[in-house]
């Protein structure tokens, strides 16, 4: 097809034009997390067809409180050297003829996935403009990673939040929230 967009070719992307003067209307955002090249984490959306994060600083459709919250998060993760959860490949000498079962593949992925921050969700309470922040962490319990508490304390000093939640999700899919009441911690 002639009208395909190549996600790796920046010349095929177009500036997004919002056909309205209304800005800052989106009061909820779920953003993926990846390691930042200068330390800490970067937050944004997946580039089409990849797991590459595209940062969206000062997004015009996000409520200004969300943009501020993401800026504070980026600064805090850098300052505290908070790690983003990511999958890495420890097996550089793969035997291409070996076939493994789904169960074996899942176990291998779990072994190759680090603990850390996976996703964040920001929700703005309209009457106060305060953000309810959910940190989605790749652990079974917040007690497994002391950096969670360090990050929460740092964030509480940087801006007034409505609430800060930690959601534990070790699933290996793109599902942001895992099922179960025991996954939510305040």
Question: Can you describe this structure?
Answer:
It is built from three helices and seven strands, in the order E-E-E-H-H-E-E-H-E-E. It has helices spanning 64-80, 102-111, 147-158; strands at 28-35, 41-46, 53-55, 117-125, 130-137, 163-168, 184-185. The chain has a seven-stranded mixed beta sheet with strand order 3-2-1-4-5-6-7. Helix 1 (64-80) packs across helix 3 (147-158). The longest helix is centred in the middle third of the chain and has 17 residues, at 64-80.
Give the key terms.
21% helix; single chain; alpha+beta; 3 helices
Helix and strand content put the structural class at alpha+beta
Number of strands: 7
What average pLDDT do the residues reach? 82
Name the poorly predicted regions.
Answer: 88-98, 108-112
Gyration radius over CA:
18 Å
Strands ordered across the widest β-sheet: 3-2-1-4-5-6-7
Percentage of residues in DSSP E strands: 15-25%
Shape: globular
Task: Give the terminus-to-terminus CA distance.
Answer: 50 Å
The largest sheet, given as strand count, sense and whether it forms a barrel, is: 7 strands, mixed
Helix content: 10-25%
Q: Determine the number of helices (DSSP H or I, runs of at least 4 residues).
A: 3
Helix and strand succession?
A: EEEHHEEHEE
């Amino acid at each position: 097809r002639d009208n395909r967009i190549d996600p790796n070719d920046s010349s095929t992307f177009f500036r997004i034009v919002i056909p309205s003067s209304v800005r800052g209307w989106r009061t909820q955002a779920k953003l993926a997390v990846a390691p930042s090249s200068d330390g800490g984490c970067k937050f944004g959306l997946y580039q089409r067809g990849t797991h590459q994060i595209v940062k969206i600083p000062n997004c015009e459709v996000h409520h200004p409180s969300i943009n501020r919250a993401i800026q504070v998060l980026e600064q805090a993760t850098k300052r505290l050297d908070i790690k983003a959860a990511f999958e890495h490949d420890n097996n550089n000498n793969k035997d291409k003829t070996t076939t493994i079962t789904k169960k074996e593949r899942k176990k291998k992925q779990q072994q190759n996935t680090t603990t850390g921050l996976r996703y964040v969700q920001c929700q703005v309470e309209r009457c106060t403009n305060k953000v309810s922040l959910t940190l989605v962490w790749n652990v079974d319990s917040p007690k497994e990673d002391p950096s969670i508490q360090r990050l929460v304390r740092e964030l509480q000093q940087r801006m007034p939040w409505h609430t800060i939640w930690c959601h534990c999700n070790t699933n290996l899919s793109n599902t942001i929230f895992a099922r179960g009441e025991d996954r939510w911690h305040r």
